[in-house]
Design goal:
Structural class of chain A: alpha/beta
Largest interface: A-B, 16 and 11 residues
CATH superfamily of chain B: Dihydropteroate synthase-like
CATH superfamily of chain A: Dihydropteroate synthase-like
Largest sheet of chain B: 8 strands, parallel
Oligomer: heterodimer
Strand content of chain B: 5-15%
CATH class of chain A: Alpha Beta
Number of domains of chain A: 1
Distance between the termini of chain B: 18 Å
Strand order of the largest sheet of chain B: 7-6-5-4-3-2-1-8
CATH class of chain B: Alpha Beta
Number of helices of chain B: 10
Radius of gyration of chain A: 19 Å
Number of strands of chain A: 10
């Protein structure tokens, strides 16, 4: 008897999330199949690749990264080059310097920079805060206000500051990222809380948290799988929001990516390792359920983008 | 497994205000009850127009359109002995939020309601009785088999037959409760869906006791595999019990606010 494949599609689907406006809009989600199961039904919108840049410039960047960004003397020109990267779908501006325990850049300066970056690039913008709860609450409010009409994604609203960040997104019509750290129940709870605050589900994206491959990634994978399974097979509307995973944030901090070749000669070139860590982790995230990944290195960005293209 | 499906029972012509509203085509009392049930978490709404022999078709059409246009195509359970009225209701029914449910067929006079459901791609509540209460589970399961075979021979998906074990009143038939639970287990073991008029178990009990008894029954029935029930969704204790059982059964992912969604 000939084999007859049965497509595994669901009656429910992942919600869509639009970031950016006009021609530079990207849409995440929409599929009614498991991650990358394009052989069962169309993914509707392919997973997207974002490029992260920091307001601290090229500090700590590796040689090939510096080469790529050569000539970019300020954050705005760095952003332009990031947006022009082969395979880049959007840009993620990290406002690291806003951290009160670091440079403590003023909110006004952060807002000014974000506006300049947004105006300079032809791709949608997502913005990551300082990771300081108090600063971020005030920072996101001003960012959301200043970038009205740009439909940016604010990364992120967490359990500690979801009220302020959610209210900012709601008031100025921006997208809100709900961030939890590999905690499936909290992931759902945050979406419930944001929705109760008045943020429409279609304006929420989830950052479920991540880990570099080899650093407890199995928890990330099982969390993402459980979220997608609840979203699709149980039609759980509080888990149908697309998943955006800042991969670079994790992978560029582990020893494989930062210990120099002179210290561990047998590991080989440090930058190569860092690219491997980033690429492998990103691919694992996409296979587990990420609808977008945020990366740093041009090699990783083009590889992942090409891989998505080849799979779909 | 998906979440337990609650069918709100409060749009029923036995209620004087609803009967009056149906007779006079007065939307307000019906919309008010529909909203209260949906706010309380009902998935489906039952629309019981009674026998409605003369005006049933027009009345059911009116009720279906009224409810679906006001509540985002809420899925409905069409409940009447008037077969033509059910067909009329389905003819104007919007399926975007779920198939219509025919309430109900049995193994006796109403067996042709299965044919009606099959012809209209509807879900059918299949009452496992012929005339009166089945004596035991052998009899119940024989009706189940008969109803199932009829539906499948007409091309229905077996999951579109929701078997009703016939919930029995505790005051009077206390010794039969274990049978009902066992029948639900047998449906579940066969991979079949089930539903029923749950609140029948507490019929005749004091008002303050009924939510407690109904909640205990639904929890035990859900453990045995009950997939749906026709209930009063405004019974908060009952709805909280159902939501909690859905969590324990892993039908729905836990979040701290699970009772609020």
């Amino acid at each position: 008897m000939p084999f007859k494949g049965k497509a595994e599609t669901f009656n429910a689907s992942i919600a869509t999330l639009d970031i950016g406006t006009g021609e530079k809009t990207i849409r995440l989600g929409g599929q009614n199949v498991l991650p990358l199961y394009a052989f069962d039904a169309s993914m509707e919108n392919p997973p997207r690749v974002g490029v992260e840049i920091s307001d601290e410039g090229l500090e700590g960047y590796t040689p090939k990264l510096l080469e790529y960004y050569a000539g970019a003397s300020d954050v705005v020109s760095i952003a332009k080059k990031a947006a022009a990267m082969e395979g880049a779908d959007f840009v993620c501006l990290r406002l690291d310097s806003a951290d009160p325990n670091g440079k403590n850049t003023s909110i006004e300066d952060c807002v000014k920079l974000a506006k300049e970056v947004c105006a300079a690039i032809d791709k949608p913008l997502t913005i990551m805060g300082s990771r300081n709860v108090e600063k971020d609450g005030a920072l996101f409010e001003k960012l959301a206000e200043a970038l009205q009409g740009e439909n940016v994604l604010l990364l992120s609203a967490r359990e500690e500051d979801y009220k302020k960040v959610g209210a900012s997104g709601l008031a100025y019509n921006q997208k809100v990222g709900a961030e939890s750290a590999v905690d499936i129940n909290l992931a759902k709870q945050l979406n419930v809380l944001l929705t109760q605050l008045g943020v429409a589900p279609k304006n929420i994206g989830m950052n479920l948290g991540s880990a570099a491959a080899g650093y407890g990634f199995e928890y990330v994978a099982s969390t993402m799988e459980r979220v997608k399974s609840a979203a699709l097979s149980q039609n759980d509307t509080m888990l149908q929001m697309p998943v955006i995973t800042p991969v670079a944030l994790e992978t560029w901090a582990v020893k494989e990516s930062i210990v120099s070749e002179s210290e561990v000669p047998e590991w080989g070139d440090m930058e190569e390792r860092a690219i491997h860590m980033e690429t492998v982790t990103a691919m694992a995230c996409l296979a587990s359920g990420s609808d977008a990944v945020i990366l740093r290195h041009p090699v990783s960005v083009s590889k992942i983008s090409a891989l998505i293209g080849a799979l779909l | 497994m998906g979440k337990f499906i609650t069918i709100g029972e409060r749009i029923h012509c036995i209620s004087p205000s609803i009967r009056e509203a149906m007779n006079n085509r007065n939307p307000e009392p019906i919309l008010k009850r529909a909203k209260a049930q949906l706010d309380a978490g009902a998935d489906y709404l039952d629309v019981n127009i009674g026998p409605a022999e003369s005006t049933g078709e027009e009345l059911m059409k009116w009720a279906v359109k009224l409810l679906q246009s006001n509540f985002d195509n809420v899925p409905l359970c069409l409940d009447t002995a008037n077969r033509k009225a059910i067909e009329a209701g389905i003819s104007v029914y919007n399926r975007s939020k779920g198939k219509p449910i025919v309430n109900s067929a049995d193994a006796g006079d109403r067996i042709e309601n299965i044919d009606l459901a099959a012809a209209n791609d509807a879900i059918c509540i299949a009452l496992c009785s012929k005339s009166g209460v089945p004596a035991d589970n052998d009899e119940r399961m024989a009706y189940c088999q008969e109803l199932l075979e009829r539906g499948m021979s007409l091309g229905m998906e077996e999951t579109d037959l929701w078997f009703d074990p016939l919930f029995l009143v505790i005051k009077g038939m206390q010794d039969k409760q274990k049978d009902v639970l066992e029948a639900i287990k047998m449906f579940s073991d066969m991979g079949l869906n089930s539903t029923g008029g749950l609140s029948n178990v507490s019929n005749g009990m004091p008002k303050e006791i009924r939510p407690i008894m109904d909640s205990a029954m639904v929890a035990m029935a859900m453990q045995n595999g009950l997939t749906s029930a026709i209930v009063n969704p405004c019974d908060r204790r009952l709805m909280e019990t159902i939501k909690s059982c859905d969590i324990i059964k892993d039908n729905c992912l836990y979040a701290d606010s699970y009772l609020e969604i």
